[in-house]
Amino acid sequence: MNRQAQSAVLFLLGASLLHAGTTDLYLRYVKAGLQPLLLAAGAVLIATALATAWYEWRATSRGDTTTTPSAAPAHPEPRVSWLLVLPLLALILVAPPALGSYSATRTGTSLQEPLAYPALPVSGDLRLSVVDYAGRAVYDDGRTLTGRRIRLTGFLALDRDGTPYLVRMALNCCAADAQPVKVGLTGRIPPVLQPDTWLEITGTYTPHRVKDPVNDGPIPFIEVTGARPVPPPKDPYDETWNT
């Protein structure tokens, strides 16, 4: 791979990072807070590619052969280096789906005890994240949830025995470390359940909980009074652990 090819690959990779960072695509890979770093990395790669191309053009126009491949002994260029283009093509052509029910049912719930419980509105429906509800239900015994109508949004997953869970994948850094937090559903559950369907659940706190069959982690439940399908959110991952 000569320098012209190197600069072309660098430019395309940088442009791909800028494209991902200026659209919602980057949220499939990393948390929202890393967007500035992703954009900076793309800009650096493009600048490097342009500098490499300019340096090569200047050396060629001056007839300086010391920096060109012709000055070196003739060796066939390793074709394996072109495999570096494959990740670039994958980034350009393939938008990976967010992790869903397949990963959730094969990974134990990763609920962590919150460091603190933010104050909740004193009236009206409580619109909570799955992670927030699960943490309050398990580690605070639902003291701030009892008697309130609660709304949760997540995707549906079915355990091997058919138990329905509302799930959000929580992450610390990127999709590679995303882990599920599960809330079991009981009460007025929809008669037809399709895994990976995004639902907004309306319900009330119930002290019922079980152990995750994968890792024995605690899974709280919510008493469902209503459910409706909703479009997947722009950011499918939960970043509560980062706040």
TrEMBL record:
Q: Does the keyword Zinc apply?
A: no
InterPro entries (alphabetical): DUF1980 (IPR015402), DUF1980_C (IPR048447)
Q: Where are the transmembrane segments?
A: 36-55, 80-99
Q: Which UniProt keywords apply?
A: Membrane, Transmembrane, Transmembrane helix
The lineage's top-level taxon is: Bacteria
User: Which intervals hold domain DUF1980?
Assistant: 138-237
Could you confirm whether the keyword Nucleotidyltransferase appears in this record? Answer: no
Q: Could you tell me what this protein is called? A: TIGR03943 family protein
Species this protein is from? Streptomyces phaeoluteigriseus
